[in-house]
Write a structure and sequence with these properties.
- By secondary structure, this protein is an alpha+beta fold.
- 29% of the residues lie in helices and 21% in strands.
- It is built from five helices and 13 strands.
- A three-stranded antiparallel β-sheet has the order 1-4-5, with helices on one face. Strands 2-3-6 form a three-stranded antiparallel β-sheet, with no helix packed on it.
- Helix 2 packs antiparallel against helix 3 and helix 2 crosses helix 4.
- The longest helix has 23 residues.
- It is globular, with a radius of gyration of 18 Å.
- The two termini are 32 Å apart.
């Protein structure tokens, strides 16, 4: 049965803005929200129109990519959620995207590394199954500046060296034309990483800034593997610990369910 809520309607987008405005720190959105279900989600830079707007349907995926300009920084986040029960194919593709997302999040790399060197780590799990996506893995993000701020990027064309203090997005994806789209996006802060025991060279790494649950129903733990499950559970534990105290009632109950550990 179709949901009465429209996946891409101006009203649903307005509700996002109302919630942000309640912080008393919102200045404006940082880009036009991408809000697409089913085949609309497979359009990487989909923009809602009255002609293409559609209702959420059982068995579909819903992709929303949004961000805002706050006094203390700029945000950009994408989440993909299942409406009803996802198919085995959806869970496979989502898990492969998540594997790439985790690979970037955990990466250690030597000074002098550029975005093109890093990009392939996000695509490995997809490439191994014959899939890919046709956009960069990450772009620079300003602090109360541009949400697409160069010159740094994580992409096949990213030749700028990644340096400490930069903020980049981490957003691998998968898109099946006419069916559904998947993208998982967090923002990362580049930092000098702790020395690796036995290592011979200094390394850099990423700190994840974005704290929002990832849809556990779309994860195949067997494909993700023990290390991936451990990362996901640790990430969700952090989300619950840092966001939970700000929520009460039904909102807190939802967060507790959304961040419950995934069995390996």
């Amino acid at each position: 049965m179709a949901s009465p809520w429209c996946a891409s309607s101006p009203g649903s987008i307005a509700r996002h803005q109302k919630a942000r405005a309640e912080t008393q720190a919102l200045k404006e959105i940082s880009f036009d929200t991408i809000s697409g279900s089913g085949p609309n989600g497979a359009i990487v830079h989909y923009r809602v129109t009255e002609a293409t707007n559609r209702r959420l349907q059982q068995g579909e995926l819903f992709l929303v990519d949004s961000g805002a300009q706050f006094i203390d920084g700029t945000t950009d986040i994408t989440r993909t959620v299942a409406i009803g029960a996802p198919t085995a194919e959806m869970r496979d593709r989502f898990t492969r995207v998540l594997m790439g997302h985790i690979a970037i999040s955990e990466l250690r790399f030597p000074p002098g590394t550029n975005g093109a060197h890093i990009d392939a780590f996000a695509r490995h799990a997809l490439w191994q199954a014959g899939f890919d996506y046709d956009h960069g893995t990450g772009h620079g993000v300003g602090s109360y500046l541009s949400v697409h701020e160069g010159p740094q990027s994580i992409s096949k064309r990213g030749q700028v060296v990644i340096e400490a203090g930069m903020i980049l997005s981490n957003e691998p994806g998968y898109y099946k034309t006419g069916a559904y789209g998947i993208r998982i996006e967090n923002l990362l802060l580049v930092h000098d990483a702790s020395p690796i025991a036995g290592g011979e060279r200094p390394m850099m790494g990423f700190e994840t800034l974005t704290l929002v649950p990832i849809d556990r129903r779309l994860v195949d733990p067997a494909l993700l593997g023990p290390a991936g499950v451990a990362w996901l559970n640790a990430y969700h534990a952090r989300v619950a610990a840092e966001i939970g105290p700000h929520l009460t009632g039904a909102d807190r109950d939802w967060l507790d369910r959304a961040t419950a550990p995934v069995a390996g």
